[in-house]
Automatic annotation (TrEMBL):
GO terms for molecular function: 4 iron, 4 sulfur cluster binding; rRNA (uridine-C5-)-methyltransferase activity. S-adenosyl-L-methionine binds at Q253, F280, E300, D348. Keywords: 4Fe-4S, Iron, Iron-sulfur, Metal-binding, Methyltransferase, S-adenosyl-L-methionine, Transferase. The active site is at C374, C374 (nucleophile). One of its GO terms (biological process) is rRNA base methylation. Belongs to the class I-like SAM-binding methyltransferase superfamily. RNA M5U methyltransferase family. The keyword Translocase does not apply. It comes from Ferirhizobium litorale. Signal peptide: none annotated. This is Class I SAM-dependent RNA methyltransferase. Pfam families: tRNA_U5-meth_tr. InterPro entries: MeTrfase_TrmA_AS (IPR030390), NA-bd_OB-fold (IPR012340), SAM-dependent_MTases_sf (IPR029063), U5_MeTrfase_fam (IPR010280).
C-alpha cells in the first residue's frame, strides 16, 4: 500500500473525483472537486484516508452504508450521497450537456427534474447465502463483496419495510453459496420478486419457497429465471389509468414520479398525432397512455412484455386501437418506407441506443419524434443522426430517476 496527497480537479462521469497525476488521471471514489485528500493506493484502487481541505459542497450522507467507511463496506448502490443538492443537480445536467456537445449539438437543456429519497419502486439486490444468514444488499463498487444492508434511503417504504421477507424468500431459494440477484418491484398488489442466477431448484426448495412466500404478507409473486413459482396476487402496475400485469423481470421505469414526468413529456409533444409508433415499447408505459388520443403501433423484442401490453389494451375501455409487433429493432429497424404512415414516433431503447433506427427516422418524413434515453452518450449520437437528417431539437429534459448514482434519464423532442 502506498499513500499520497492530491487535489481533486473534477468529478468524472461515474461520480468519482479525478486528480491529475504524473501518469494521467487518478480516480478517487467519494472525493469532490477542490478537495485536498490523503489517499491510499492498493493495486489500482484509491481510498481516501483523510480530507485536509473539504469541499463546501460536501455534506453528510443519509445512509450508514455509504462511503469508504460505510457499515459493512462501501455500498456500491450510491456514489454521490456526499454531494450537496445544487452541485449534484449541475453534475447530472452537465452529463447531458457535455454528451450533446461532444456530438456538436448545443440545444437548450432544461433543469434537472429531481428525484427524492424513498421513490425507488424497482431495486436490484445482490444476494448470497452464508452459513448463518442471507446477505442481501449491493455489491461494493468493482467488487464481488456484498454489503448487506439494514436501510436504503432511496428505496420505497414498501420495499425497505419488507427486507426481512425478501431475505426469507432468498434464503428458502438459495441452493449454494453462489451469489444471485433479486429484482424487487413494488406493484399495486404487493412486491414482485424476480430471482436470477440460481440454477435448478429441487422440489424441496420449490416447496420451501412457496410455503415461505405464502406465510408472508405483501408479496405478490416470486419467479425464478422468468418462471413463476408462486403468485398469491397478480402484480399490477398503473400506466396512466390503464392497469397492466407485467411479466416477471420485465423492464419497468425505476420510479413512478420519473415515469409520470417522462410520459407527460412524451404525450404532450406527440399532441394530437393520429398515428403513433412506440418503439422499444416494453409493457406499454407510453403506448397505453398515447392510445387515449391516437392509434398506436407498439414494437418491442420481448414477447411477454408485448402480450401484457396487448392484454391491457384489449381490456381497457376508451382507448384507440393498439397494434403490437415483436421485432428486433437493432437488426430490423422500422424502415423509412414503413414510417410513412406515422405522424409521430417515440423511441426508448436500452443503453446501446437506437443508431440504425435513427438512421431510418432521419430519412423519414415523420413530423414529431420523442427520444427517451438512459444514456446521454448514445442519445447524443442518435440525435446527431436525426439533426443531420433535417430534424430540429425542440426540448431536452434531464430527469433523475437513479438518485445519488451517476445515471440520468433524458427526454428529447424533435420536429421536422
Ligand atoms: C428502456 S426500456 C423501455 C421500455 C418502455 N418504453 C418503458 O418505458 O417501460 C427498453 C425496451 O427495449 C426492449 N428491447 C431491447 N432490445 C431490443 C431490440 N433489439 N429490439 C426491440 N426492443 C428491444 C427491452 O425489452 C425494453 O422493453
Amino acid at each position: 500500500m502506498s499513500t499520497e496527497t492530491v487535489t481533486i480537479s473534477k468529478l468524472g462521469a461515474q461520480g468519482d473525483g479525478i486528480a491529475n497525476g504524473p501518469d494521467g488521471p487518478i480516480y478517487i471514489p467519494f472525493g469532490l472537486p477542490g478537495e485536498t485528500v490523503a489517499i491510499a493506493r492498493v493495486k489500482n484502487h484509491r481510498t481516501i484516508m483523510s480530507i485536509t481541505r473539504p469541499s463546501p459542497d460536501r455534506r453528510e450522507p443519509l445512509c450508514r452504508h455509504f462511503g469508504p467507511d460505510g457499515v459493512g463496506g462501501a455500498c456500491g448502490g450510491c456514489s454521490l450521497q456526499h454531494l450537496g443538492d445544487d452541485a449534484y443537480r449541475s453534475f447530472k445536467r452537465d452529463l447531458v450537456i457535455d454528451a450533446l456537445k461532444s456530438k456538436g449539438l448545443a440545444p437548450a437543456v432544461g433543469d434537472l427534474v429531481v428525484a427524492h429519497p424513498g421513490e425507488r419502486r424497482r431495486v436490484v439486490f445482490a444476494a448470497r447465502k452464508t452459513e448463518k444468514e442471507l446477505l442481501l444488499g449491493f455489491n461494493q463498487a468493482e467488487s464481488h463483496h456484498i454489503v448487506s444492508i439494514s436501510e436504503c434511503p432511496i428505496a420505497s417504504a414498501a420495499i425497505t419495510s419488507r427486507l426481512d421477507a425478501i431475505k426469507a424468500i432468498g434464503k428458502a431459494m438459495a441452493t449454494s453459496a453462489e451469489p444471485f440477484r433479486i429484482t424487487v418491484l413494488e406493484t399495486l398488489s404487493g412486491l414482485d420478486l424476480s430471482v436470477e442466477g440460481i440454477k435448478g431448484l429441487s422440489d424441496q426448495k420449490r416447496r420451501a419457497t412457496i410455503e415461505t412466500t405464502l406465510g408472508l404478507r405483501g408479496i405478490a409473486r416470486v419467479s425464478l429465471n422468468g418462471e413463476i413459482l408462486v403468485e398469491p396476487m397478480k402484480p399490477i402496475l398503473d400506466f396512466g389509468g390503464v392497469q397492466v400485469s407485467p411479466p416477471p423481470g420485465s423492464f419497468t421505469q425505476a420510479t413512478k414520479p420519473a415515469e409520470d414526468i417522462m410520459a407527460e413529456l412524451v404525450t404532450s409533444h406527440v399532441g394530437k398525432a393520429k398515428r403513433i409508433a412506440d418503439l422499444f415499447a416494453g409493457s406499454g408505459t407510453f403506448s397505453l397512455r398515447l392510445a387515449r388520443t391516437g392509434r398506436v403501433h407498439a414494437v418491442e423484442a420481448e414477447d411477454k412484455a408485448l402480450k401484457a401490453l396487448d392484454h391491457a389494451a384489449r381490456n381497457t375501455q376508451g382507448l384507440k386501437p393498439v397494434s403490437i409487433e415483436k421485432r428486433d429493432l437493432f437488426r430490423r429497424p422500422l424502415m423509412a418506407s414503413e414510417l410513412k404512415v406515422f405522424d409521430a414516433v417515440v423511441f426508448d431503447p436500452p443503453r446501446a441506443g437506437a443508431e440504425f433506427q435513427s438512421q431510418e427516422l432521419a430519412r423519414s418524413g415523420v413530423k414529431k419524434i420523442v427520444a427517451v434515453s438512459c444514456n446521454p452518450l448514445t442519445l447524443a449520437r442518435d440525435l446527431a443522426i436525426l439533426v443531420a437528417g433535417g430534424y430540429r431539437v425542440t426540448s431536452v429534459t434531464p430527469i433523475d430517476q437513479f438518485l445519488w448514482s451517476s445515471h440520468v434519464e433524458v427526454v428529447a423532442s424533435l420536429e421536422k
